[in-house]
Write a structure and sequence with these properties.
Radius of gyration: 13 Å
Helix content: under 10%
Shape: globular
Order of helices and strands: EEEEEEEE
Number of helices: 0
Largest sheet: 5 strands, antiparallel
CATH architecture: Roll
């Protein structure tokens, strides 16, 4: 099984560098709650907007995960699901984002547009 790291706002914790190649290939399993009538996954059904000036998107839901890329304030992101991880300013939730690469972003810095994402 592949390990996955979360995204974190650039709050001085460092970690990794963009373009490292350690991207998450995608989720497996799940509760089927994201399936449409034809059985296909509705990726990107959940959306959010980035509230941090620069949010580090990571390979796992931890502050120590490698940075895959950065999202910027006002950017709209597609969210696959949420999971607990390292707390970021008191918020333990991380969102698995599906914008080109699979990456984790700290929910503390992503405001939901519409319903909250399902659990991973």
């Amino acid at each position: 099984a592949a390990a996955v790291a979360p995204a974190v706002a650039d709050d001085g914790w460092g970690g990794g560098s963009p373009g490292s190649g350690n991207t998450f290939a995608g989720p497996t399993g799940g509760d089927g709650g994201d399936r449409g009538g034809d059985g296909s996954q509705e990726q990107g059904r959940y959306r959010g907007v980035v509230t941090a000036d620069r949010l580090a998107l990571r390979t796992s839901p931890t502050r120590g995960g490698e940075v895959i890329r950065y999202a910027h304030r006002g950017e709209t992101v597609r969210i696959h699901c949420k999971t607990p991880g390292d707390k970021v300013h008191g918020n333990p939730l991380w969102y698995l984002l599906t914008d080109g690469t699979w990456a984790w972003g700290a929910a503390r810095y992503i405001d939901n547009i519409g319903p909250a994402p399902r659990w991973c």
